[in-house]
Amino acid sequence: QRNTHVLNLGKFSSVIKLSAFFPFKSAQGALENINAVSEGVVHADLKLFLETNLPSGGKKKAMLGVSDAKLGATLQEELNLSIQTGGVVAEIIRGVRLHFHSLVKGLTSQAASKAQLGLGHSYSRAKVKFNVNRVDNMIIQSIALLDQLDKDINTFSMRVREWYGYHFPELMKIVNDNSMYCKLAKMIGNRKELTEEMLEAIEEITMDSGKAQAILDSSRSSMGMDISPIDLINIESFSSRVVSLTSYRQELQAYLQSKMSQVAPNLAALIGEVVGARLISHAGSLTNLAKYPASTVQILGAEKALFRALKTKGNTPKYGLIFHSTFIGRAAAKNKGRISRYLANKCTIASRIDCFSEVPTSVFGDKLRDQVEERLAFYETGDAPRKNLDVMKEAVIQASEVAAEIKRKLEKKEKKKKKREKRKLEALSTAEGDDEEPKEAEVRVSNTSIGGV
């Protein structure tokens, strides 16, 4: 029965009457109000509306229905109102939303839909901009693309080796590097046309005069088959693509390093950009990684082995993605588990500092890396490492100094920017003044001429 009353405009209008309506002055005002409502804050417009339209004599007796419980609690605290949320209030507000264009005079459903859509877009845009963790999305995509490029470049290079190997099989034994092989295949082309004049160009690619001479000698006595010009064109074209992919991979690696130094400098300094990016990608975000305990970070990436060990009641894995760190490889076999546990602990600290610090610096990451190095030396030689408290005190002092320096530079940069903007405005106002003066002169001249006539 309640649902029927809500859906039927006639029945709903007989129960609910519109007593007051306050339109927003602008789209910006509407956005400010909806942001305040989403955060549970009472906006000045809402406060004024309630104070104006609620019964002045008996505010405590008036019952205010609010859909959002958080906002209701704030209203009750600030304005001392009797608040009701949920139940029948939700049904009434649903009916108001459904018949809003009919309750307000001069408002059509199309105009209401357009206004709601515009406000929804503005609100969503503001929320996306407010997301402080959005930059780690670039790291997640970059590391995924880097892994895919590694696979593709390896596959394509093998294809070039096999394809060009029919014509010049000896080159495969001389050159092991895939990128170098593709460059040479593109540059040499037909081995029968390789001459002494091309020796210098080959040496530039191989960076080895002995290899360059060996390639030249092998081309003269090669056992490879002859190749047609059209086949050679296709091989050269494909080799060019592989070379361009290799150069793009290097650019992407540099981009990832710069992003990691901005987003997670301490984690990058501790464990490296690539391994740190893989940890962030596997966790889903830097915030998620910061929430993980050290025991989870230690086996992150080895979930399959973990669940298999739990199922078979065997030994659980000692490390996951952090195995690719140089520290695990340098440790002795008996100490790999111990150093991986210690490294995971430091990674957790670094990720939390990166996630919640205002000014990103790599000071803590460098200090944590030194601690891991000292722990490795302790396992090998028995030299006692420094206490964590002393290291962290030193790191806090250095980090505060670096942060102060960064803030000073940013403030200086901001001042210069404001000065440039001020000069531009002054130049524009001067130019506008110069343009107006000739017009006034023209008007005076024309008036004089009329008076003379």
TrEMBL record:
Domain Nop: from-to ranges: 263-381
Nucleus listed as a keyword: yes
Gene Ontology process terms (BP): ribosome biogenesis
Gene3D superfamilies found in the cross-reference section: 1.10.287.4070, Nop domain
Localization of this protein: Nucleus, Nucleolus
Main localization, broad class: nucleus
Record-annotated membrane-spanning stretches: none
Matches recorded under InterPro entries: Nop56/Nop58, NOP58/56_N, Nop_C, Nop_dom, Nop_dom_sf, NOSIC
SUPFAM superfamilies from the UniProt entry: Nop domain (SSF89124)
GO MF terms, alphabetically ordered: snoRNA binding
Disordered: annotated span: 412-453
Family annotation (Pfam families): Nop, NOP5NT
GO cellular component, as recorded: box C/D methylation guide snoRNP complex; small-subunit processome
Keyword Signal: no
Entry's family note: Belongs to the NOP5/NOP56 family.
Function according to Swiss-Prot or TrEMBL: Involved in the early to middle stages of 60S ribosomal subunit biogenesis. Required for the biogenesis of box C/D snoRNAs such U3, U8 and U14 snoRNAs. Part of the small subunit (SSU) processome, first precursor of the small eukaryotic ribosomal subunit. During the assembly of the SSU processome in the nucleolus, many ribosome biogenesis factors, an RNA chaperone and ribosomal proteins associate with the nascent pre-rRNA and work in concert to generate RNA folding, modifications, rearrangements and cleavage as well as targeted degradation of pre-ribosomal RNA by the RNA exosome.
Oligomeric form and interacting partners: Part of a large pre-ribosomal ribonucleoprotein (RNP) complex, that consists of at least 62 ribosomal proteins, 45 nonribosomal proteins and both pre-rRNA and mature rRNA species. Within this complex directly interacts with TCOF1 in an RNA-independent manner. Core component of box C/D small nucleolar ribonucleoprotein (snoRNP) particles; the core proteins SNU13, NOP56, NOP58 and FBL or FBLL1 assemble stepwise onto the snoRNA. Interacts with NOP1 and NOP58. Interacts with NUFIP1, RUVBL1 and RUVBL2; RUVBL1:RUVBL2 seem to bridge the association of NOP56 with NUFIP1.
PANTHER family named in the record: NUCLEOLAR PROTEIN 5 NUCLEOLAR PROTEIN NOP5 NOP58, NUCLEOLAR PROTEIN 56
Protein name, per record: Nucleolar protein 56
Gene: LOC107584618
